[in-house]
Amino acid sequence: MAGINCDTQGVADMADGKLLSVRALWCLVVVLTAAMLFACGHNPAPVSSRQPPPDERINYHLVVSGDTLFAIAWRYEKDMLSLARANNLVPPYKILVGQRLTLNTLNAPPVRRSVAKPAPVPGQRADTTTPGSSKKAHDTDRAAIATGSTNKPKATPKRKHLPAGKLKWRWPVKGAVTRQYDAGRVFKGLNIQSVSGRSVSAAAPGTVVYAGSGLRGYGKLIIIKHNDIYLSAYAHNRILSVREGDTLKGGAEIAKIGGDPNNSGRLYFEIRKNGIPVDPLRLMPRQ
After folding, report:
1. Structure confidence by residue, pLDDT tens digits, 1-10
2. Which residue range(s) make up the domain with 34?
3. CATH number of the domain to which 76 belongs
4. What's the pLDDT tens digit per position in 133-171?
5. Are residues 24 and 64 in the same domain?
6. What global pTM score does this model have?
7. Is the dihedral of CA 126, 129, 135, 140 positive or negative?
């Protein structure tokens, strides 16, 4: 310690029974204080004071080529209709590459739900037109999607009806459940162990709203909208047998198992209610 001479000359002779001198006690206090300050300076900040990771602060999505509103809603565990309303989107839910979508659905107008309500047509994949295009071009694009040609008058797209009332669920493939839904450990569906090449079927009637491999971690994925409440997903397929917009009966073939390079017999199956993952075992019949 600079400026302080902590030698033994300031200590009284213990043989003579004298106490420590004031100077020696002062040296001891300064050394202990410095040691405490050094220790505090090198302790990590408490966990509660650290900044959360960036993914917990995401509040918007920048649209890229191939995106659909259904896929974006699935990625962030949002209800598609609420996400559409939060961004002032209407059927057919056209989005543009580079468009910035808010993920805050808390202030969106409430969605009126009914299992008997016709389902909207599947969300359009992101257009390569930039958000800065003129309003005239944007209106022409919307008319082209609705009618199939800019030379025809704009028409309201037909909506495909989905089954009303309580859904009758069925297993998408025959096999053993090797991993169950566990919200606490963030496993949001079921792993079903089957056989490579076996057919995957729709767990209930509905419309295909996503078929592709654009969602990281799912491989070749199919998402089926059953009504305004329920969606189901089938991941890690080898072959997709349906396309977006296809209307399916329960049990209809939609894919072939075999897309997981580490386990060619695995199917990942997930059900979401109002955009939130739920335990499929609570809905499926006993095997």
Report:
1. 444 454 544 4
2. 8-41
3. 3.10.350.10
4. 444 444 444 444 343 444 444 454 454 555 545 899 999
5. no
6. 0.60
7. negative
